[in-house]
Structure formats: structure tokens, C-alpha cells
Amino acid sequence: MVKRGIETMIPETLKAEVKGLHFYYNHLHALKNIHLPIAEKKITALIGPSGCGKTTYLRCFNRMHDLYPGNRYEGEILLYPDRLNILSAKVDPIEVRMRISMVFQKPNPFPKTIFENVAYGLRVRGESRKSFLAEKVEKALRQAALWEEVKDRVQDLAFNLSGGQQQRLCIARALATDPEILLFDEPTSALDPTATSKIEELIMQLKKEVTIIIVTHNMQQAARVSDYTAFMYLGEIIEFDKTDKIFTHPSQKLTEDYITGRFG
Amino acid sequence: MISEGQTIVQIRRKIAFNKLRDYLFSIIGLVATLIGFVLLFTLIIDLLIDGFPRLGWQFFTSYPSRFPEKAGILSAWVGTTLVMVVTAATAVPLGIATGIYLEEYAKRNWLTHLIEINMNNLAGVPSIIYGLLALGLFVYFFKFGESILTGGLTLGLLILPMVVIATRESIRAIPNSIREASYALGATKWQTVKDHILPYSMGGILTGMIIGLSRAIGETAPIITVGALTFIAFLPSSPVTAEFPFLSFKWLFDPFTVMPIQMFNWVSRPQKGFHLNAAAAGIILLIMTLVMNGFAIYLRHRFRKRIKW
Fold first, then answer.
1. What's the pLDDT at B20?
2. Which residues in chain B are contacts of A106 at CB distance < 8 A?
């Protein structure tokens, strides 16, 4: 069933490919044999009921699971064009995180200034040239559609921003280091509808520059923003296809039941 | 609503009875609170009445003397200050490093658990035990003598668990999402600690440090055990010198006394004049502690204003 989905992808260039991914929290088998292509400069959405493993799956992409003991990966995620298996024990998770950025569920700015929040990724990479940092910070804030709102107060504390602005600040922080893939973990679940639509608009803008994977529990959101959608259930990919196809003619009964709201 | 078989009159009586008990407890509570408060207040007033007339320039600039009216606390407050410097210099770096290691680096295994349990128990060990330990370790084994260094290290050990616990608590208050944000940008553990964990928990750490120091400043037992003198009529050698390298650490090895020991010495004398001196020194010690606690509260507020999780 998954195969069919992949064939429909062939015209696109791949940015990453997930092959036979299994994930274990100690003895809990959380992800089961996942195969999934990630198309370059497209938005791939993951939908499914809570607890289905969407977030677990997303956090494999930046090796976030390495921070906690007892987690184990099997299989590969190949990053193109260099075919680097980012799950390999030989690959340093820090290198992976420097190439793949993440935006979290709740806005989590550092208790620092707006400027320092955006500059932090560059500082971690040893960058300290003032003019370079200023240039990068401005560019990232512009990309995140926040520059006009904060350009006169980049030295203000980030906590003084509204929730939606904080989330856009987190997006700017993730963009400042020119990531190859940008991961979004339910980025609007803590925001009001106005802030949500702003973020959605922004995500659609960003796909011109970066490959995006987004986890969402909101099906309308997936339908609005994404090019491809994968439906996950109990740690497995049930169906993967072009977004309009999934939402109009799902091939699996389970997918149809979920998107029509029969469960979830 | 009203349970079966009860008339409204019965219910009203019941409510009145319950309210009476409510009222009774509020009286008991008030009396209990007042007992503690009034006693303490009387004690402080008494201290002020006795000691206040003795406070003056002469009291701060004189050494102890056979004549109560000529005696002062010069060697005691200088000793206390220097001992506190050594205490802070020992307990703070050790305590912060331990706290960070236990929270951020240590694997959750039986060894870590053992250290954690012991750390919490250490905070409750009677201070005289620290005195005995220090006597064996610093005075006899390391041969630091009955010096400021020994006194400071002893009190440093005493408050070390407090600094560790304060550090760990304020580190734990940092939400995990902040750590993840840092790691997700490619930061190493040390970068995360130095750029986030440490700065964001500094308020709590400093508060813990000051509360530890204000406990140490009043400690008498371990200081007597390691051999602080009760009668010192000279100052330790100066930490600043006229010749190169301008800094001297000879003071670390000088004998010393501290405020509570000076007070203890005066109280144990028969003459009334010395008792007044003890009261005056008590006021100074109290002010030192209050100022430190006030500073701790100020720091906590200052850091809280910047950081709201």
C-alpha cells in the first residue's frame, strides 16, 4: 500500500528517504517499519490520532531521541544528496541537528533578547562577527515575517512578544542557520486562530527555500499547507500520497474513517 | 441539600456549631503564632536595649580587652569576613559544579542515587560533626593549623549541601523545552549548560549561596572544634602588600576569631559590662544576617523579573 504512494512521487527530487525505520522506547515498539520519501522543497505532513507516533517519527530526523537513555533506532533515514544515514551510530547527532532544524509545539524562546535568540544557532557554530550576525538575524526575521514587528526592539526580551510572535521567533531561530530540512512539531497547537493562519501562511512561503516536514493533529491544516500527506496509525504509515489525493480519494478504509472524523 | 429527617432548625444549629469550631481554631492559631513572634520580638528588643549604647566607632575598631568598655569586635568582624570569603570560595564553585553534574550529566544509576541520598542527609548532619571531621582532615592531616583557611573550609563543607540542593532545584525549574531548543540548534551539552542552564538558574543559585553563608556566619561549634581562639588582639596579615606581587595569601594561615565566638566569650564572663558587649555584637551579627537575607530576596526578585517559565 505504501509502495503505490512512493511511485506517485517519482517526478520529484528527494531530499530524504526513510527506509525500514523502527523505533523503540526501551521495550515499547513505537515505530514499525516505516518507509517514506521526503520531496525536496515540498511540505510533507504527518497526520494521525494522538499517540500514533507522529512526533516520535519527527524527532528521529534530528536525533532528539539521543538525549534520553533507553531509546533505539533501526533502519535508515538517508539524507540526499550525500546519502548520509542520519540514524547511523557513526554520525554525530550534533552534525544532524546542524543540518536539520526544528520548531516545537509550544513556543520555547530562550529568556534572552530577540536578537540573541535568533543568533544562538550561529553562536553555537562559533560565529561572532557582529556585522555577519546582524545580517543573518535580520534575514531570518524577515523570512519568518517578524522583522517589521520587531525591527526597532531586537534588544528586547523575547518573552515580551505575543505567543504567535514567539513562535515566529522560534521559526526565525531555526532558519538562521540555513537548515536543509525544517521540522515542525504541531507548531500552532498552542496558538489562537489568527496567529495560526499567519504561521500557516509562513510555512507555505518557506517551502520555496527549504524542505519541510510538519506534524499536525489538525487535518484542515495538513490539507491547506502540505503537498504530501502521510497518515499514521499505531506506529505505522497507513497511507502516503499527494495531499489532495489523500483527502479526496483515500485508498485505505482506515484513512477515510480518520479524515471523515469517524475516529481519532 | 438537607439530609433526610433533619429540620431546618436542626441544620441551623449544626451550622452554628461548626462555625464555632471554625472560630475556635482561628483563636488557637493566632495565639500559637503570637507566642513565637512575641518571644522572638522580646528577645530582639532586649538585645537592642542592652547592646545599642555600646555601638559606636570605638566598638568596631578595638580589639578585645580586659576592660569591657574598651573592648571591641575588630578582630571578630575581620575574622568573620575573611572566613566567609574562604567559605564562599570553596562552597560555591564546588556546589554549582556538583549540582550541574548531578542534574545534567550524571547517568541515572544506583551510584547517582546513592550520592543524591547522601547529599540530602549531609544537609542535616549536626555542625559539630563537621568540626570533628575538619579537625582531623584540615588541622592534623593537611596541617593547615588552626587558621582562617581551616575555618573557612570547614564552614564551606557545612554549607556545600545547601548550595548543591539550591543549584539542583533551580536547574530543575528550567523547562525541558529550553534544553531541547538549545540541543536542536546543534549545541553540545557544555554549550547548553554555559549559555542556558547556568545563567537561567543563577538567581536560585545565588540565593542558595547567600542563605548558606548566613547560616555559616552564625556557626560556633565547628569553629571552636577546629581551634578558633577566643581572645585575639591582632589582625591577620594583609592580603594586599606594597611589594610585587602585591597579593599575599599569608592571612589564610593566621589564627582568627569570629563574631559568635567573641560573643560566647563575653557572655561566659561574670562582669555585666561584657554581657552588654555580647548584646552589641549580637545586634551586629543579626544585621549582617538580615542584610544577607535581604540581598537574597532582592536577587530572587531581580532574576524572576527576567525569567518567567
1. 94
2. 177
pLDDT at A1: 41
> Do B177 and A106 count as a contact with CB atoms less than 8 A apart?
yes
Closest B-chain CA to A109: B178
Instruction: Render pLDDT for B280-306 as a digit per residue (tens, 0 to 9).
Output: 999 999 999 999 888 888 888 888 777
Nearest to B58 by CA among B49, B48, B68, B43: B68
Domain parsing of chain A, residue ranges: 2-259
Question: In sequence order, what are the residues at sequence separation of 6 or more whose Cβ sits closer than 8 angstroms to the Cβ of residue A81?
Answer: none
**Mean pLDDT (chain A, rounded):** 91
Spatial strand order in the sheet of A84-85 = A28-39, A14-25, A71-79, A84-85
Residues on chain A touching B308 (C-beta within 8 angstroms) = 159
Residue A117 reports pLDDT greater than 70: yes
Shortest CA gap B214–chain A (Å): 30
Q: Which CATH number fits domain B62-306: 3.40.50.300, 2.30.30.100, 1.10.3720.10, 1.20.1300.10?
A: 1.10.3720.10
pLDDT at B308: 67
Please state, rounded to an integer, the average pLDDT across all residues of chain B. Answer: 88
pTM of the entire predicted model: 0.84
B305 touches chain A (CB under 8 A): no
List the 87-116 stretch of B: residues with Cβ below 8 A of A. Answer: 107-108
Q: Residues 114-153, chain A: which have Cβ within 8 Å of B?
A: 120-121, 123-125
Residue that wins the pLDDT comparison between A157 and B235:
A157
Among A residues 56-75, those touching chain B with beta carbons less than 8 Å apart: 62, 64, 67, 69
Answer whether residue A184 shows pLDDT above 50: yes
Query: How far away is chain B from the Cα of A184, in angstroms, using its nearest Cα?
Result: 12
The full DSSP string for B162-216 is HHHHHHHHHHHTS-HHHHHHHHHTT--HHHHIIIIIHHHHHHHHHHHHHHHHHHH
User: CATH fold of A2-259, please?
Assistant: Rossmann fold (3.40.50)
Q: B106 to chain A: nearest residue by CA?
A: A69
